[in-house]
Fold this protein.
Amino acid sequence: SGPLACHAALMQSDGSTRSLRSIVRCYQSAEGHRRYMAVVEDRSAEEERDLAQMQIGALMGTAGVGLATFAASSGWVQHGNALPAPEGSDELASTAALQSIRRDVVLPESLPEYERLQHALRHGERTEVRYAIRHPELGQRWLLTRVEPATLASGTQTTSVVTLDITEQHQSQQRNELLLREM
C-alpha cells in the first residue's frame, strides 16, 4: 500500500509543543524481502510561519493595509489577505485597490510627496509619505506609504512597502481644524 503518514504534537520539557509528521514506507525487493523506511519531520517552523502569515493577514485586513515586498530573486510580491471579507464589507477590495498606485491618480498637490516616494523606491531608501489620490472606484483617498529597506541574513537586499488608507484620520483632522478656526 501507499505510505502511511501521521501527525502529532510532542510536548517538550519546557512546556512548548513540537509539531511532528512521520511517514512510513514499505519497499519490497525482487526476492520478496520487505524493508521499511520511516521519516520523522519537525514541522514546527512551517507551522509557526503559517500562523504568522494568518495573523499578519488578519491584521492587514482589519487595518486596511497593503503590503508589498521586493526581493531580487522574485521581484515584487504583494501580500494579500486570504480571509473572506465580512458580510457587506468592501474593506478588502479597498485594500487591494490601494496597493498599486499609479502617478495618474495622484492629486496634483500631492505629486511632490509621491515623487519623494518613487525616489525612495528606486534607491532603496527609507521614507514615509502622505499623499492624496483620486481612485476611479473609491473616490478621493489619503494614503500613508512607508518604505523599509532591509538586508536579509543571506546578504540579499530587500524592500518592503506598506500602504495604509488614512482617509478617515485625515478627514477627522480637517474637521477638528475647521472647528478650532470657527471657535
